[in-house]
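INPUT
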Amino acid sequence: DTGVSQDPRHKITKRGQNVTFRCDPISEHNRLYWYRQTLGQGPEFLTYFQNEAQLEKSRLLSDRFSAERPKGSFSTLEIQRTEQGDSAMYLCASSSTGVWNYGYTFGSGTRLTVV
Amino acid sequence: DQQVKQNSPSLSVQEGRISILNCDYTNSMFDYFLWYKKYPAEGPTFLISISSIKDKNEDGRFTVFLNKSAKHLSLHIVPSQPGDSAVYFCAASARSSGSSNTGKLIFGQGTTLQVKP
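OUTPUT
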């Protein structure tokens, strides 16, 4: 078990371009979470999946953001028509149902810079 | 509306002394509280948690205290070590009405701890 993997680690994109990030959770974890962290702030919840079902989305997740978790394994987060305000660290985490209170396992994140 | 607040952006302590990190919250529906540690270029790492039905939880050098009447929790690190230097986040989770806890966490802004040798 190598933990939660996120790819890429860094992404620089021009404003208006689309970007997609990937998260591979710990294999036996059925819950997967996406968070966004900006400088000087704590992580902010974006969305979460239980298996392949997306059960909650934050109002932070505008129509330009979409997340999927096909087959309940890896997940992708896509941002369409990126804006400079989208520049942030995007964190993925996973846990098993009912044991999240022992803490999620976070990945190292994808740092997005929109220029 | 910042439901979880860490009002001290930074804290500096001497190695071997106690570090006390504080966190305040506003939502009385929070039923679990967690502390995470984050090193640069890494994701947050879980440290310790506490249920709202308890007032103290201890794990080695780390102890979390919860004061529900004051809506305040604190993390004590004794003794502090240089390797503890990191950003510490307080987080809380609430049970959704009529359902189990989803595990969605609300984080504070973080406190940067520096432990000097």
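end of record. Chain B touches chain A at residues 4, 6, 9, 32, 34, 36, 41-47, 49, 51, 89, 91, 93, 100-110 (CB under 8 Å).
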